[in-house]
Design goal:
Distance between the termini of chain A: 32 Å
Oligomer: heterodimer
Radius of gyration of chain A: 20 Å
Structural class of chain B: alpha/beta
Distance between the termini of chain B: 18 Å
Structural class of chain A: alpha+beta
Strand order of the largest sheet of chain A: 1-2-3-4-5-12-6-11-10-9-8-7
Chain lengths: 294, 123
Amino acid sequence: MSPTHPNTTIKLISASRFSYEQLTAIYNQTRVDYMVPMPMNAARLAEYVTTYDVSLDHSAVAATQDGEMLGVNMLGLREDRAWITRLGVIPNTRRSGVGQALMESLMEQAARLSIKFVMLEVIKNNTPAYQLFSKLGFYEVGELLVLRRSPSTKPVDPIVADAQRMDRTDSLVLVGRDRGTQPWTNQSESLTNAFEVSGLRLTLADGSRGWMVYQRQKFLLTRFAFKTEVGDPATVAYALLSHLHHQYPRLDTQIENIQINDPHLPAFYEMGYVESFRRIEMWHGTLPASLSVK
Amino acid sequence: MTKILLVEDIPDNVALVRKLLSGRDYEIIHAPDAETGLQMALDHIPDLILLDLGLPDYDGQTLAGWMRAESVLDATPIVAVTAWPEETAKKMVESYGFDGYICKPIIKVSEFIAQVESFLKTP
């Protein structure tokens, strides 16, 4: 990583030179005034790095020449594609080129690895960030939803179906199948990297069938991947969710980055999910083979 | 003395709430994350819980769900303190069993104090 940026007041340092505690402290400081602050602790950041294939060697911390921390930006790497995430600049140092320096640094890292396709998401209505990404050549490809379902939501009876629980191995075989182009967080690698992954597969009386794979954390169901193989997606998804929430009635649920035009979406709303916030998905470059065929 | 549990990870926000509520008959106890917040709620059974939705271990919605599952906290109002847009805050409050919400940033001191008092008076 280049020790200095053309803006000579900003020094860019590889994130791998910092501990998770230090990175967490910097990241949290960048988010204190966000509408959706999403602070982390060191354990959560470490899990995030592992799950999403973030390379700290290729990620950057921005500092002044005197060592004052200014911001952070992280780069995920998978085959022929990259992902920019956790970009943040400490509030009182914004509008001084730190965000752009961090972005250009990571784009340069990707280019050095011959990666020509970069993805990212930006929280909807974060206009300064959106404008920065647009200026750097990112283009909008769609809107993503973050949904929550409280464990106190009225329980539903499971829909009558031939339902089969799947272990991790069988579940990961399914998530590798074609689900269209997914945001980085929902790609098959994210579930392969995650702990406590299992799934559910069912067939309804009319022959409709599909599957759902998820991560079960201590208090939370999250990281959903799903597919309808035959039949109406909303009907199949409702049946899958009815079995899932019947199985785990006390767990909170958070699912990230469902595409707004996903045909399964009505089932989530019917099951009591509420929208937390939206993100805009943006790409740079053309879709690589590794995503086109999955 | 009325006991208020503040679950908030940002020290400046903790200092602000302490300052705004100082000089009144309130004892402010503080937890910086969700797991500590739950433990302190169970240990102290406060009269009011002010809960930031963005916490570093589990978020405020998840914590509210745990608290609402504890019958010893049935009489304790849980209030979300959030910068969410009002429409989103309303949905989360309704869905997760909060008793209400206070919008961040806290700008009007008198309004904030009146909100805290109103939640304490709610039967």
